Amino acid sequence: MHRRGFNLLELAITLAVLALLLTLGSGAYNGYQQRRQLQLVAEALVRDAQAGREAALAHQRPAFLRVQGGPSNWCWGVSVAAPCDCRNAASACRVAHSQAGQHPPMRLNGDAQVEWQPQRGETTGAVQVELESVGGQRRQVQIQADGRARVCDGPC
Fold first, then answer.
1. Is the full-model pTM beyond 0.90?
2. Cα–Cα distance measured from residue 73 to residue 78, given in angstroms and rounded to the nearest whole number
3. pLDDT digits (tens, 9 = 90+) for 107-144
4. Does any domain span residue 147?
């Protein structure tokens, strides 16, 4: 007489292999998720920088991006005519504004300020800002002297 199905030993081995695969896969998935979240925040900063450049050209007035770094209370803000304080006077950042609480946990290293000229949207010099995930992955956002912004995986 043949019985169909699993015996207890086969079931235990199957569950052990499944647990091992899930354990190995979850670490890889967490790394992927952190890299993806880091990329999305870097792209959001690039979009806001592009909005600042476009605002300078559209309003024919200087536009400013102010980045205030830190481990958990970082922010950036974009405004026209005068720099805004994204920590204390976020309402003055009328073009764009973003705070750490709106994003997954990560660190924004360093402070920076960019001014776009209204004639051609150029800046007074190149600026780099570094974003770092909890797992240590990094992305650089560079705003070049011609006013354009881009994301780099390593140093720009």
1. no
2. 17
3. 999 999 999 999 999 998 899 999 999 889 999 999 99
4. yes
Q: How many domains are contained in the chain? A: 1
Angstrom distance (rounded) from CA 73 to CA 97:
13
- How far is it, in rounded angstroms, from Cα 90 to Cα 71? 19
Structural domain containing residue 67: 8-152
* Residue range 119-129, pLDDT digits in tens: 999 998 899 99
Torsion angle in degrees (nearest 10) through CA of 142, 144, 148, 152: -30
The encoded tokens of residue 24 equal 């190995």
| 49-62 confidence digits (pLDDT tens) | 999 999 999 999 99
Which tokens belong to 122? 């150029």
* Beta-bridge partners for 133: 106
Q: What is the CATH number of the domain that holds 100?
A: 3.55.40.10
Cβ count within 10 A of residue 60? 9
